[in-house]
Design brief:
0% strand; mainly alpha
Amino acid sequence: MLASSARVLRQPALHMQQMGLRTARPLLFRATTPASLFGDEVPNPEHVPQPTPNRIKGSYHWMNERAVTLLSVPLLATAFVYGPHAINDMLLGIVLPVHAHMGFGSVLLDYFEHRRWPVISRVLKYALFGITGLAMFGAWRINTTDVGLTAYFSRLWNANKSQKTKE
C-alpha cells in the first residue's frame, strides 16, 4: 500500500486520474470561449483596426526622449554649480516639464492603450497636455515674477534648516 501511494505521488497526473479529476485546463477555457465573451458573434480579424506600422515615428520618439534627458543633465549641473541664472532657469522651466510629459506619456501608452481604452486614453492624453502646459506656465511665472526656479528649489531644500536656526 505504501509503495503504491509513493508511486502515485511521484506521478501527479496518475494521482489526479485516480481521484476522478482531470486537468483544470478545460475548466479555464470553458469560461472564456468567444461565445461567452462576445455573445454569438465572434469578431472578424479583418474588421479589427490595426495600427499602421511606422518605424520612423518610433525611432524619432526614442531619440527625442534621449535628447531631452541629455539636455537636462548639463542644465541641472549648471544650476548646482553656478546657482540661479535667468537663462538657465528659463531652459529648466521648459526642459523639465517636457521631460516629465514624455515620461508620463510613455506610461499612458503602456497602460492605457488607445485600442483597448479609447475614451480613457484620450481623456488622459489631453489631461497630460493640460498639466504640462500648467507646469510650464507655473515655471514661467516663478522665473519672471519671483526668484527663479533654481533659487526657488534652493529655498525649498533649505527651508527646514532655516526654521531650525530661527528657533
